[in-house]
Every structure is written in structure tokens, then in C-alpha cells.
Amino acid sequence: MLSNPKLVLVQGALNVVMKQNVTLSCLSESAFPPVRYTLFKHNQQVSALNRSDLTPALFTLTINSASDVGEYKCKAEYIISSGGKYSNSLNFTLIEPISKPVLSSPTSQAKKGQNVTLSCLSENGSLPISYLFFKGTQNISPQKTMQKREAAVIFLFIDSLNDFGTYKCKASNSFPNNTKYSNGFNFTLAGMNEKRLLTVD
Fold first, then answer.
1. Pairing of β 188-190 and β 109-111
2. Closest CA to 107 of 193, 22, 46, 176
3. Does 193 score more than 90 pLDDT?
4. How far apart are CA 96 and CA 98, in angstroms?
5. Whole-number mean pLDDT of the chain?
6. CA dihedral sign of residues 110, 180, 14, 45
7. Distance (Å, rounded) from C-alpha 100 to C-alpha 115?
8. Angstrom distance (rounded) from CA 186 to CA 193
9. Is residue 201's pLDDT more than 90?
10. Neighbouring C-beta atoms of residue 108, cutoff 10 Å
11. Phi/psi at 66 (nearest 5 deg)?
């Protein structure tokens, strides 16, 4: 009796990048050959293979565009009869690299005793995106991971000139080897001022 086939990822990952190859295996373990295996994406046929033995049908895909990701299923059916059974589904997600983040503040000038904010945002790239803030080469904030397309924000307290320097932020996501740094940002300080990081939620 024909059993529901199993669709298994044998090469690649479910989180894919552009131009990546993935290989799917489809097999009905209780089938009597010959068996026809058909791969579907969102209920549209992608490819079909006939098997005259009990080896799985292997489908290799190349992710060339966003239309190549989504839900895949396979169908097993006897070549000489109608009907058939469907497999489990596998869902591919396209991971896109982040763009260079932009570091900004509502004000470029600050006075002693003033609270200021710094915002870091990468407008492109797959979510979630993680951000870190730096002054010079020193990390001045815990990592902030944003699940939405929103800027990560930190608050600074201006106190003296001792910590005057250039601020930057770093953004990264799950795309391989894709960490990017922002432009540098400097406040114009009047008098003896310092930027000190305050605790934020």
C-alpha cells in the first residue's frame, strides 16, 4: 500500500540565501515501484521523477529569486493508477543581507546635564537585526535585537569632555558574514561635557 511520502532536506538549509542550491528527498517507504514523485511549491508543480526502485527521488533547486522560497510538498503516486498521497511540507525562508546602518540623533549639540539619544537603523535585510553601539572601539551598550523594522535606541547623559569621541553602531543578522558598521557621529559639546550611558529598558 502506498504510504504518505516523507520530504526531507538533504543538502542546504531552510534559511537560504540567493543563488544557494538545496536538495530535497522524497520517498514513500511502503510503495511498490514504479512510483512517480512530483514536487510542488504552493500547489504548483515544480518537477517530477519516476522511480523504478525503492530509492528516493532527489530534487535539486537553486534559489534565484524570492519566488523560489515558500512551502514545498511532494506527491507519490503509482504511474499506472490515479490518485496519490502527499508528504509533509518544508518551508524555505530567504535571508537577505543588511544594508549599512545609519546612526543618528535628534540633536548634534548638547549641554552639560543634558540627556541625548542615539538611534541605529539598517533599512534593509532580514529580521531580526541585532545592534551594538560603540564609542571609539569600546562597546557602550548591551546588544539590542529588533524583531521589527525599528531603530535601536540608547540614551546618553552629557556630563564632561572625558569621553568625547566618535560614536558608531554595528548591525548584523543571520546572513553569513554580514556585519556592517554605521557612519561615525559626533556631538558638539559646550563646556566640560561627557557622554555617559544610562540604563535603558
1. parallel
2. 193
3. no
4. 7
5. 89
6. positive
7. 26
8. 13
9. no
10. 11
11. -65, -25
